[in-house]
Structures
1.
Amino acid sequence: DTEVTQTPKHLVMGMTNKKSLKCEQHMGHRAMYWYKQKAKKPPELMFVYSYEKLSINESVPSRFSPECPNSSLLNLHLHALQPEDSALYLCASSPVPGGDTDTQYFGPGTRLTVL
Amino acid sequence: GEDVEQSLFLSVREGDSSVINCTYTDSSSTYLYWYKQEPGAGLQLLTYIFSNMDMKQDQRLTVLLNKKDKHLSLRIADTQTGDSAIYFCAEKAGGATNKLIFGTGTLLAVQP
């Protein structure tokens, strides 16, 4: 089973709203990732958690706040977003953080629209 | 630099072979990957190759790696309409990091 699940599938929010994106995996992976993908572009890394600790923050604005409550769950809390934050948000996980064979498996994504 | 380049678009007829090319820059990359993304969906891992290999075959997929030229290709035999998607190559950044450097993506259109 190489499944990463994400909820919700679609999300529309106003610029003053607070919402959260959720990601879950039950493969025993110890690294989890958030990516942002704009139309017709490759995914851009936002955050990496290794063993439930934040290891990489790619200079993401503070209106995006990640959280890793346990080894299976990853959240992305959203607050005061801008219309340009509208994108597909992808979650991924991989078995061994930093290992040579650390292949990333992606979820289906959450399509976010900020009005 | 960390640019990974791909041609933007490829059109083939159903039943033909498709070859998608990728040029990467980090010679210390240990693993190189191919992902497939259908419209509105996430990325599906297709295959990967270790940097000390020249070729890897997996059913209809053949990956060729020319490490000297930093060139990676994905050949899809007997291409089907269900293969229509965007294909991303990705290299694992060197060093003790989890970062993947993605290519620009190639849109494969399969004509019936």
2.
Amino acid sequence: QVQLVESGGGVVQSGESLRLSCTASGFTFSTSGMHWVRQAPGKGLEWVAFIRNDGSDKYYVDSVKGRFTISRDNSEDTLYLQMDSLRTDDTAVYYCARESNDMGTWGLGTLVIVSS
Amino acid sequence: IVMTQTPLSLSVTPGQPASISCKSSQSLLHNSGKTFLYWFLQKPGQSPQLLIHEVSSRFSGVPNRFSGSGSGTDFTLKMSRVEAEDVGVYYCMQGIQLPYTFGQGTKLEIK
């Protein structure tokens, strides 16, 4: 069964850090690029970051460049999002999604709340 | 690339058709010949789910009452007969250029 499970969300203060994880199963993780997409409360979807299957290339939305780092461990079938210098407008549910089936697989998301 | 959806909300009687428009600020036609336009549905309290990829290809398990069409910068998602389970927010997304961008979303309600 193809599955993505996010974890690591929580409540933090503005300026603090958090690391999200996304554990994959049911497909060959090392052959798929991976995305992070977020959704602020009551708002639409916002693409955040992408990493190629081998980690060779990484891309970010402008609002998180220099603060967020996407990475992966193919030996552990796990995707990460290191979030530093968090701001209140980073408050959102963060989803990981699989590239290799056209973003046909999403996790349930993990909620990040940044308080001032 | 800016994605603009219309309408932003839709109220439909079960069994009736519905359509959503999505326009991109740049062509989504790649030099490979593929057009990278996707449609997602986010049902209440759930993660987004892929409905359509590359304009008109239904994802695995998606009912054939959903269809996508369009080219270049203008795209449409059609539902031939809306059912109660179709309620939620529909998003188009361009995947030709990073950062990928989504439309604002169209909320479908059942009358």
3.
Amino acid sequence: EAQVTQNPRYLITVTGKKLTVTCSQNMNHEYMSWYRQDPGLGLRQIYYSMNVEVTDKGDVPEGYKVSRKEKRNFPLILESPSPNQTSLYFCASSGIGLVRNEQFFGPGTRLTVL
Amino acid sequence: DAKTTQPPSMDCAEGRAANLPCNHSTISGNEYVYWYRQIHSQGPQYIIHGLKNNETNEMASLIITEDRKSSTLILPHATLRDTAVYYCIVRVGNNAGNMLTFGGGTRLMVKP
């Protein structure tokens, strides 16, 4: 089954404790992206990657890092989480150069930073 | 990408057609209209897209006005499971950046 998986689905942590949220897709997609969703602000893009070893900032990259060492994986790293990073996070993937350009989203990771 | 305007909320009776409007008066010639929906805190789901012709798939129909300044997503027989936030997004179809800019969307409530 074609899917995007994220782990963990729920995480409660404390300020400053490094964490990684994993994202994996099995559709051989070149493009992967991370979004965060906050009430009243909608979905905002954090980082994206057009292919292996190619990453770029989205609209709200501060406080986050990403890596793309393999095509299927795109982890989101919070080196020193702060309470303002409490949010619902979504990973997405798609092919590129396609008009249909359907993005497949993961189930979400709800992060709480105390 | 062009800006879109959608009503914040709509109700629809179960079994009836749900017609969700979207205004995109600044759309340019190479921009497509995409629709996604998000069912309560799940990941957004692609529904349909179109350029200027009306489109239909197994989920919905998309009607785009001749001047392309507005469009309507039609769910022909809404069910309770169609309760969700529906997002209308305008962007270049093969945009290498691939970013989707989600606005506020329309919260559709399907009622029994």
